[in-house]
């Protein structure tokens, strides 16, 4: 990033000097507006670079001076789920921000009730239920450089907040069970994880609760080994606003032997816990399907997926999704909220 800025700034200055001599006032005005936008973008990137490095340095100093939690690795987390048929709530950088009331560009608005419930589940010791948190604690050596920088900066800012909201006597599990490809240096991490996911899904009746344009497993073989699939569709944005309706719909339609798959942002984190308390197995799978799509296509960055809502690739068209005419998918929908 530092090298990029040092190259772009002189180019910008040279271009401004060149266009200053243009005879066409109209052309000069348009080009100056474009260059002003470029300059603002460069400034934002440079400021982000400075802030990021500040938090990375801060975390280098503080990470070994606090009592960090125990986090089970990705493969061992998936084996535990497979062996115990437990429910799963996942926490990433977004969930701690919702708890703290930090604004973010997301598909879920800040909500005090949501924050309080997320905080409660994070500390919980529920019935056959595990809580997964970010692998950003300690030294995440398996991460690629970009992800390592991201988590170092995030922890530089939020490590003490995380620690103040977790139970250090509790064993936590890895939230990267569904973020196992793009963040890691080796694709072998994802290869092993997806094999274990296949075993978790194999022969199960799935009740999928997802956003209206999530379409988990559609167009790929992620769910090829399941016995059956039924779907409950909920709003793609601000699903928590319909929490009671969603929970009621699940309980009306779910059988006790079903594996309930939740792909509805932070609403899933809470709902997995509430359903576990009532004797269901519910797994908050987060972006598992999108991560699998990126793995299959050998993507090197977050890109849009045709026919699926990809919040993190919004600027690439990931939030502009057409209606589906896939008859198999449409036949699986039993409820649309």
Which structural traits does this protein have?
337 residues; four-stranded parallel β-sheet; 11 helices; alpha/beta; five-stranded parallel β-sheet; disordered N terminus
- In round numbers, the mean pLDDT is 84
Number of strands: 9
How many alpha or pi helices? 11
Radius of gyration: 22 Å
What proportion of the residues form beta strands (DSSP E)? 5-15%
Structure in a nutshell:
This protein has 337 residues and is of the alpha/beta class. 47% of the residues lie in helices and 12% in strands.
Can you walk through the features of this model?
The strands form two sheets. Strands 8-7-5-6-9 form a five-stranded parallel beta sheet. A four-stranded parallel beta sheet has the order 1-4-3-2. Helix 9 links the parallel strand 7 (259-263) and strand 8 (281-284). The protein has helices at 2-20, 25-62, 74-84, 93-100, 112-122, 145-165, 188-201, 243-253, 266-277, 288-297, 327-331; strands at residues 70-71, 87-90, 129-133, 171-174, 205-211, 228-234, 259-263, 281-284, 333-336. It has 337 residues and is an alpha/beta fold.
Topology:
Elements: H1 2-20, H2 25-62, E1 70-71, H3 74-84, E2 87-90, H4 93-100, H5 112-122, E3 129-133, H6 145-165, E4 171-174, H7 188-201, E5 205-211, E6 228-234, H8 243-253, E7 259-263, H9 266-277, E8 281-284, H10 288-297, H11 327-331, E9 333-336
Parallel strand pairs: 1-4, 2-3, 3-4, 5-6, 5-7, 6-9, 7-8
